[in-house]
Amino acid sequence: MPKISMYNQINSLTALRGIAALVVVVHHFSYYTLPKTGSNLSAYSNFFRNGYLWVDFFFILSGFIMTHVYIEDFSLKVNPSKYRSYLLSRFARIYPLHIFIISLLIGLEILKLFLLNNSAFTGKFNLTALFANIFLLQAFDLNCPPLFWCDTYWNEPAWSISVEFVIYCIFPFLLFLLLRNNKINDLKVYVFALFSILLLIAFTRGNLDSIIGIPSIARCGLECILGIITYKVYRRGNYRNYFNLNLLAIIAITWIILIMNSYWNYWRSLHDWLILPVFSLLILAVSINNNSLISNFLNSRLMLYLGTISYSIYMVHWFVQELLKTLWIYKFHHAFGKGFTEYEALTSLGVFLMIIILSASLTYRFVEVPMRNYLKSTILAKQ
């Protein structure tokens, strides 16, 4: 069995994953499941309306963290044995919870058949889409021209793990190539990747929220490259000699709030693009534990726990939304949230978040971790 690299976990980044996951949950609930909540929130700020941008934070952070974990394994060459071990480890990380949620959604389709007398396995929950989901191909329906809007995913957030697994397959080779670069070439690669993303946004759907299907491979891959270069800057550590980390964190958070708070109907592609470099800045600013107020907050037990269960939060919330809408129609014979007051809409968001955290805690403990460990102990042991 190949040796698995040991690394020090960067706790503050774990906490940021939890924050990002919760922002995505609020975005989906407020603007998809109960739009009345979204309109109430948007009256004060568009922060959660722009919540989809935190998926791009995940992609950048993924490149950073995977470089942190695998830099020793792939710095000299891409060894076939280590590559297999790495890929199986990545598969064990994402697949068990994904297939568990798909099984729950299959059960929900059957429940709809009995409770609502609806036709099962139709629309986006068709059997062809189910096949694609089982094989992690849900983001790539080749029969969906022009490949920019493919409704083939049962669990909507899971489109991202489909493209991430494609990037996982090429990541060791990207890492091997990019580790050869000096500081000047790193800057050139970062700027090239950044402006390539702007062109991708401008010439596809005009915003990051709609870039799924085949172009999402480029979206995820280019942002992964941003994460790799950001890690190289972190590893060198020169920036710490010239910049105050607390000031960098404050600048990054302020920039994020300003972008997230606004919603540009025109220049939408530029709006979404402008937040990407600041995600790199935020990661750099909080990666070092400097005992500041921000650092202490991110390293608190609650924030670390939310970060630990963030993948479960991200994956389970769409199923809970679908279950809630189904049971509500069965009980009250109208769509969820119809006739809600502003207070009831906002209260429902709070209750929903508590349900999601509880559900994610259970899936993390009883599904995600046990199945990941089982796969690693059985599959990797054979390597």
UniProtKB/TrEMBL annotation:
Residues 11-357 form the Acyltransferase domain. It holds the Pfam family Acyl_transf_3. GO terms for molecular function: acyltransferase activity, transferring groups other than amino-acyl groups. One of its GO terms (biological process) is polysaccharide biosynthetic process. InterPro entries: Acyl_transf_3_dom (IPR002656), Acyltransferase_3 (IPR050879). One of its GO terms (cellular component) is membrane. It comes from the Bacteria. PANTHER family: ACETYLTRANSFERASE, ACYL_TRANSF_3 DOMAIN-CONTAINING PROTEIN. This is Acyltransferase 3. It comes from Nostoc punctiforme (strain ATCC 29133 / PCC 73102).
